[in-house]
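Entry: DUF1684 domain-containing protein
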Amino acid sequence: MFSNFRFSGFLVALLCVFASAHAQTAHLAPAEHAQSVVAFQQELNAEYRNPHESPLPPAERKAFKGLPFFPTDYAFYVEATLERDSTALPFRMKTSTAREPEYRKYGVLHFTLNGQPLQLIVYQSLDLMRKPGYGDYLFVPFTDPTNGHESYGGGRYIDLRIPKSPVLMLDFNRAYNPYCAYSPKYSCPVPPAENRLPVAIRAGVQSDH
């Protein structure tokens, strides 16, 4: 996925994001949504099996059977409103290493989950903005109470594209782990404190440790 420092998986990652575009912009019925999540999981597993793209060390990749996922849950597929922030200045985001890539705050997603109003800040990588075809990529890193036992301790990521409408679908079933969850050779953004959710997100990739 795009927010990990080594960009060896661009093609498969790009396909994953394109496949998610429909799920982001259209409110899918439960059956269609479930099919879209299965397709996302299959693409992600294919990336992890591919020796040219996988973040897994060779021994783990050879034994790889598939990522563990929480059961697909339609309740974690929520409508969100994106409040644009066009005044935010670039900043250096902390990572799992000394690297501090430049990001900017693109806006804030407002949504309701389990009856609770919540928000997440959406970021845009300045490096990716300069790459042809990636100018509309958005990045949502977050943490939640499942981290460290049910999901990876360092938090998870969701990829979005810049929407044509401020209303979009936010799908936590597509939450995935940073590559540094599998190997220290990667440098991964650390989810900022303001993106700490107070509710448990039992959707997306689970912890396998």
